[in-house]
Amino acid sequence: MNKTTTTFLAFFFAVFMAQANEKNISSPDGKIQVIVGVTAGNQPFYSVTKNGKSIIQSSALGFSIVSEEPELSDNVEIIDAKTATFNETWEQVWGEERFVRNHYNELKVYFREKKYKNRTISIIFRVFNDGFGFRYEFPEQEAMDYFIITDEKTEFNIAGNPQAWWYPSHAEGSFGESIYRHTTFDKINVTAATPLTVDMQDGSFLAIHEANLTDYASMTLINTKENILKCELVPWANGLKVYARTPFVSPWRTVIIAGNAGELLTSRIVLNLNEPCKIEDVSWIKPMKYVGIWWGMHIGKYTWDMGERHGATTENTMRYIDFAVKNGFGGVLVEGWNYGWESREHDGNYMNFVRPYDDFDLEKICKYGQTKGVNFIGHHETYGAVLNYERQMTEAYQLLQTHGVHAVKSGYVKDKFDKTEWHDGQYGVRHYRLALEEAAKHQIMLNVHEPVKQTGIRRTLPNLMAQEGARGQEFNAWDNGGGNPPSHTCILPFTRILGGPMDYTPGVFNFDIPHPKARVQSTLANQLALYVVLYSPLQMACDLPENYEKNMKPFQFIRDVVTDWDKTIVLNAAIGEYVTIARKDRHSENWYIGSITNEEPRDFKIKLDFLTPNAKYVAQIYADGKNADYKTNPTDCVIREINVNSKTVLDVKLVAAGGQAIRIVKE
Fold first, then answer.
1. Sheet with 53-60: strands ordered across
2. How many angstroms separate the CA atoms of 526 and 545, rounded?
3. What's the pLDDT score for residue 344?
4. Where in the sequence numbering do the catalytic residues fall?
5. What's the rounded Cα separation, in Å, for the pair 395 and 444?
6. Is residue 590 within 8 Å of 666, Cβ to Cβ?
7. pLDDT at res. 41
8. What pLDDT is recorded for position 39?
9. Backbone dihedral angles phi then psi of residue 165, each to the nearest 5 degrees
10. Taking Cα atoms as reference points, which of 146, 148, 138 lies closest to residue 111?
11. E strand or H helix at 341, and its extent?
């Protein structure tokens, strides 16, 4: 019997919704309601309202799969439904806040096809007070064993033609290093990556993403002719999407429903839809700040490969270690320490992850750093040759573990893995998980560049620390388009970072970039504020040590700021325009505030009513100077101290592309 591609549980629009067979579930506070059912034509759908107002109109559910049957019917029925309630508070190993509330109501709907083998599938909805998630579950059954998904029919049918912040998923490379668009749905003309953030144009916002992306293809979104966002799974090279075997579950499709832009940042739906931590001993997983032999390559001072300007030498690395010790940094990243960079074509199959260059003494450097309390952060650049990396992976991790190394930055700077497969197809998702799990066996934290997107896996495997997955600071060193625009960092918290922490690598102090067209489009105070605004448990001070040593007064904020938080509060926010965030140190009573703006200057009044009542504090303020100008005078930064308490209202003045960083110390 010939294989045919048929639609399983695919949606067909029904005019007479009154005839639908429906089940419903509400959020714990009763404000969000989800309806799940089958239409008069026996096609599954869902819809969502909040306070009686439509959020997502009737939207498709289902798949197309490769089947041995001559036809796989769309004709399904609901055979059962079960509800449950769950409420817990769990503690993060590290994070934006120490404790996370996980409170939802669950609806599990069981569907069965009416013809042929009566195959079954379940769809599980979990509804939180700030949004919802749903996933597909294929139970083990005689009628269905191995199967191949060719399309997922999931839709997000949002009324009208709202605006969204998005970027192309693959049209400009495969790892998310694009400028964000802010357009109406009808202008989304290619597949868009998630998180995709929607302005509902009534003051509220949605963010569409996914959680627990495991052995599946990444979900991108394609706009239909009706301005409905439909799931478009990233394919294998042969065009198929997912290879699976029952029992099998999909990732969660997630939607944050926020009353304002700031509420997007404090939602923990993506984390809550992942499994609890599977690593028993997490004592080696430690957030930290780090410096590194990295920025010098991007501005042309050093080379990655061995030669006259080689950056990763023993002598230079020890100099960076000394700087890290003096200034309280936990690690030193070294790129270009291993053989393989000398290949002019940068063919990843030449990369050797266990053989250091002759001018780099790995053992000596690791011992030197350990005697001073500084970690060597290894670097594994694969150039997309993941089969070569996987062949060496265990030995490479063992080598670093033997030398007491607990952190690795990995990279995948080719558009396709092994020249054929997308980073975020099932092939790539499997590789990233293999690397993460193998790293955990050797007590190694990962900072992944050119990654598959973050989907909350860090809850289950918290050795997944930061990732890139968006345009980072390096674009400011060599981008012919002029670097990242000032609005870029005002968009990231509400888009990319909703998925998880980002290694943006802030901290430029020398704004004289050698590249004739590139520039850092911010002030110095803005660079300081990014340590609070752009969350990461691994925060880099990216500039050269000598540039910090010339500016020790503003550098003091980077020395002081922490990377692990007890609480996070968004004080004001407008996507792409400005954002101000306050975070409390997990290990002290100190608070930090970061405020940034786009190309427009801003004046804010910030209440400090989150401070402990009747307690006294000193605020150390790093602000734009009166003559600061991000184009002509970015380094003008004024520093002052004032006494504050919970009744204080601060006047915060930001110049164009400016910022303000504040450390609040409890007396």
1. 21-26, 32-38, 44-50, 53-60
2. 19
3. 63
4. 474
5. 13
6. yes
7. 78
8. 83
9. -105, 125
10. 138
11. none
Positions of the chain with pLDDT lower than 50, given as ranges: 1-20, 70-73
Helix/strand number for the chain, H first, E second: 13, 38
Q: Mutual orientation of helices 386-402 and 426-441 as an angle, nearest 10°?
A: 10
| Radius of gyration for the alpha carbons in the chain, expressed in angstroms and rounded | 25
Please state, in angstroms and rounded to a whole number, the distance separating the CA atoms of residues 188 and 191.
Answer: 7
Instruction: Report d(CA 157, CA 223) in Å as an integer.
Output: 10
Q: Is 401 helix (H, G, I), strand (E, B) or coil?
A: helix
Phi, psi of 439, rounded to the nearest 5 degrees: -60, -40
- Amino acid (1-letter code) at residue 103: H
Q: In the predicted model, what is the mean pLDDT of the chain?
A: 94
Q: Residue 70 has what pLDDT?
A: 35
Output the pTM of the full model: 0.95
Tokens of 394: 């265990």
> What is residue 83's predicted lDDT score, i.e. its pLDDT?
98
pLDDT at 72: 42
Q: List the one residue out of 158, 171, 173, 242 whose CA is nearest residue 208.
A: 158
| Packing angle of the helix pair 552-560, 524-533 (nearest 10 deg) | 0
Tokens of 409: 């930055």
The pLDDT assigned to 174 comes to 65
Letter string b/e over residues 539-557, b meaning 16 or more CB atoms within 10 A of that residue's CB = bbbbbbbebbeeeeebbbb
Q: For residue 389, what are the CA distances in angstroms to 353, 393, 557, 667? A: 8, 6, 38, 51
SS (HEC) of 41-84:
CCCEEEEEEECCEEEEEEEECCEEEEECCCCCCCCEEEEEEEEE
CA 300 to each of CA 44, 151, 315, 328: distance values in angstroms, whole numbers, following the listed order: 57, 45, 19, 27
CB neighbour list of residue 586: distance below 8 Å, 6 or more residues apart: 98, 562, 564, 565, 566
Q: What is the pLDDT of residue 117?
A: 75
CA 46 to chain centre: 27
Residue (of 532, 463, 568) closest to 100 by Cα position: 568
Q: Contact at 8 Å (CB) between 615 and 609?
A: no
Q: Which domains does the chain have, with CATH numbers?
A: 4-272 (2.70.98.10), 276-469 (3.20.20.70), 472-500+516-531+558-667 (3.20.20.70)
Q: HEC string of 370-392?
A: HHCCCEEEEEEECCCCHHHHHHH
Which residue, among 29, 25, 77, 28, has the nearest Cα to 48 in the 3D structure?
A: 25
Alpha-carbon span 99 to 93, nearest angstrom: 10
C-alpha 501: how far from chain center: 5
Interval 518-563: pLDDT, tens: 999 999 999 999 999 999 999 999 999 999 999 999 999 999 999 9
